[in-house]
Amino acid sequence: MLKKTIISWCICLLVFEGFGQGISVRFQDSTSLINEIKEQESIPNLFFRFEFPFTEARGLFLSDSSFSWSKTDSSYISKPFTNGKEIDSLFLTLPADSIDLKFFVFEEKSDIKGVASYLETLHDTGDFILSEDQQRPEKDLVLMASRNHYEPLDEYRNKLMSDKGLFSVTLINILFIILSIFMIIFMVIFKKKRNQREYNIKAFENEIIEPLTTILFEKSLDEIKEMTPEMISSIYPKQIFQKRLFKKVLIDKIIGLNKKMKGDFKDKLKVLYKKFGLVEITKSNLKHRHWDNVVSGLVQVNEMDLTDLLPLVKEHSQSSNFHVRSQAGATLLNLSEKVDLKFLRDQSYPLSDWQQMHYLRIIKFVSSSKSLNIPILFSSENQSVREFGIKLVRMLGRVDLIEELHKINKQVLEEEKAELIKTYDVLGAHMEVDFINQCMTSDNSELQKEAIKSAGNLGNEESEKIILDLLNQDPDFPTRKILLRSLFKLNKQTFEEYILTHASHENLSIQAHLLDPVLNHV
Amino acid sequence: MKKILIIEDDLLISSLVQFRLKKDGYETVLVKDGNEGIDAIDHQNPDLIITDVMMPFRSGIEIIHHAKKNHPDVPIIVLSSLGEEEEVVLEAFNLGVVDFIPKPFNPNELAIRVKRVLR
User: Fold this and answer.
1) How large is the average pLDDT for residues A472-499?
2) Which of A6, A204, A277, A505 could bond to A249 as cystine, CB 3.0-4.6 Å?
3) A260–B23: do the CB atoms touch at under 8 Å?
4) Average per-residue pLDDT in chain B?
5) Residue A388 neighbours by CB under 8 Å, 6+ apart
6) Burial environment of residue A454 by CB neighbours within 10 A (0 to 12, 13 to 18, 19 or more)
């Protein structure tokens, strides 16, 4: 112990060489520097050698091979050592006095200041860690991390999975990525299929045109009717004709052509439609769960006169879908042999203006060839259907149904009464004047106005009295104008007398308007 | 052989018309839009033009304008579903078309009218 202390002091004295304290920022003196080196197993490009003068040469330790002494001009010098931890043990094997410890940096002899400066530089670049820092790795964690290969511990792995938040975020991200990939794949497949479908449609169109044109021009209607299934199947290649898409394109072409052709071509197309077995496609369309397919089916029935499918069409007349309902109604009106209008009577949905116009157009067309049971509509529970029935009587000029209308005069609502009065007016139903007079005093202003207007054409003396009574009740200007116009039409003398006795500015203006031959009808 | 230019975007209709006219011994040229129509009028030297009104790129009215300006002697028959629209019919006749056949039409009737025009 005593020897160790002496050796340490000797070393300190040997290397101290007079440069005192504060050799660098990190090493306050040479002793702390030496002590630091002693704690290091190796320092890059720094080694040390032992040296002693010739005068102190002793054969005993010169023969020690572990030092590999070599002779210089004035001294003996050992081989280089790098492990600082060996300094003490090496000193123990040497005579304590006169032994000098020399440091070399990049194989150049360096004094203790140079060594300190070198170690400072190494420390700054991270290539050298002070022994006390090595015991406290958290001080330079990044440096430590950079020197050690990262391997997560098992316990941390479990910790990562047990973190619910992190786990759910990771899961969502993974699901999102998977979903995105699926969507992209789906889109690519969908687009490819659509392109393929469009390509096929074009190809089928080209395939269809020539044979269809040839049949239409080369064969008469009777010849087409007599065509056998074998002849029909030989028109188009079997493998193409069996495809549903081909049949759909064929249907579109036949229906498109049917709309644009006149004469026996239409009949030929209808026969061909049946011969090609396309009715089965129409049938499946009518039973389809998608409304657009059902509408297509209904159009096909309508265009191709497929009366056998009318029972299926009737099932759709009460559909909750507006388009299906309207098309089914139009098809039934168009194709039914007896248009009894029962499907319209039982309609639970209100008829829109468009539907009424659409049905009216068909009914006008078929009314000359088919018997229409219009009165059945008056018994409908649906107000809009009853109103439509009344309008039909007016539009079709069915004077024979005035009696039927008379029966419902008292049962119907105010709006329907207004329609009834319009109809009586158009049809010149003078026998309904009592009903009109009655409606002239209605609280419903629309009904009242219609009744006053009609009274001008259909009214009687009673109507005149009611008009004068109403005029005396100081009505608003539009009503006054209608009243005076009707009075003017009914009895010009009473009108003149009224104006004379009630010569207000308003009355005189209305009179001027009614007497003006240009403004009279405005 | 008389050459007839058919300008119609509906391939089936144009094929039907072509088929019918070929039966009567006419040479036919089919084009499917207004641009091709104008190009064909200038380069094919047709003896008669049959054109639709509603077509891609150029309307039938534009085609009639072009034909009457550059080839005033070539007769034009309009074949259109706009036959019920008085304005279109009047404009076409004002521009100098010889006939207006409304769709739906009968190809045999068209063939008769073509024969009459080219006589």
Assistant:
1) 87
2) A204
3) no
4) 89
5) A344, A351, A356, A359, A377
6) buried
Gap from A262 CA to chain B (nearest CA, Å):
5
Q: Which helix (H) or strand (E) holds A210?
A: helix A164-218
pLDDT at A30 exceeding the cut of 90: no
C-beta of residue A275 within 8 angstroms of C-beta of residue A234: no
Number of H helices, E strands in chain B: 5, 5
Number of A–B residue contacts, CB under 8 Å: 47
CB B76 within 8 A of CB B91: no
Instruction: Give the residue from B9, B10, B12 with the most A CB atoms within 10 Å of its CB, the best one to mutate.
Output: B12
> Using one digit for the tens of pLDDT, what is the confidence trace for A104-161?
988 888 888 888 888 888 888 878 887 777 666 555 667 666 766 666 666 565 666 6
Contact status of A256 with chain B (Cβ, < 8 Å): yes
**Distance from C-alpha of A438 to C-alpha of A89, rounded to nearest angstrom:** 136
What single DSSP character describes residue A203? H
pLDDT of residue A55: 65
Q: Give residue A144's identity as a one-letter amino acid code.
A: M
Token look-up 């079997």 returns: A238
What is the separation of C-alpha B75 from the centre of its chain, rounded to a whole number of angstroms?
Answer: 9
Alpha helix segments (H runs only) across chain B:
11-23, 34-44, 60-70, 86-95, 107-118
Domain boundaries, chain B: 3-118
Q: How far is residue A20's CA from residue A101's CA, in Å, rounded to a whole number?
A: 18
CATH superfamily of B3-118: Response regulator (3.40.50.2300)
Q: Taking CB atoms and an 8 Å limit, are B81 and A216 in contact across chains? A: no
Beta bridge partners of B101: B79
CA distance A431 to A403: 10
Q: Which positions ≥6 away from A85 have C-beta within 8 Å?
A: A38, A39, A40, A41
**Binary contact (B109, A262; C-beta < 8 A):** yes
Tokens of residue A259, six digits: 């709309």
A261 contact residues in B (CB cutoff 8 A): 16, 104-107
Residues on chain B bordering chain A, Cβ-to-Cβ distance under 8 angstroms: 10-13, 15-16, 19-20, 23, 81, 103-109
Place of tokens 């534009």: B62
Residue in B16, B106, B109 nearest the CB of A213: B16
Strand arrangement, sheet containing B3-7: B27-31, B3-7, B48-51, B76-80, B99-102
- Is A203's Cβ below 8 Å from some Cβ in B? no
B49-61, pLDDT tens digit by residue?
A: 999 988 889 888 9
Omega before residue B102 within 30° of 0, cis: no
B64 or A90: whose pLDDT is higher?
B64
The residues near B38 (Cβ < 8 Å, ≥ 6 apart) are B58, B62, B63, B66
Check pLDDT > 60 for residue A336. Answer: yes
Please write down the HEC assignment for all residues of A41-95: CCECCEEEEEEEEHHHCCHHHHCCCCCCCEECCCEEECCCECCHHHHHHHHHCCC
Which residue, chain included where needed, has tokens 């202390």?
A5
Say whether B19 and A253 touch across the interface (CB within 8 A).
Answer: no
Write down the pTM of the prediction: 0.63
Q: Which two tokens stand for residue A415?
A: 């709006």
Q: What is the pLDDT of residue A17?
A: 43
Q: What are the b/e assignments for A475-500, b being 16+ CB within 10 Å?
A: beeebbbbbbbbbbebbeebbeebbe
- Residue identified by tokens 């069409």 is A313
The residues facing A50 across adjacent strands are A101
Average pLDDT, chain A: 84
- Binning chain B into helix, strand and coil, the percentages to the nearest 5 are 50, 20, 30
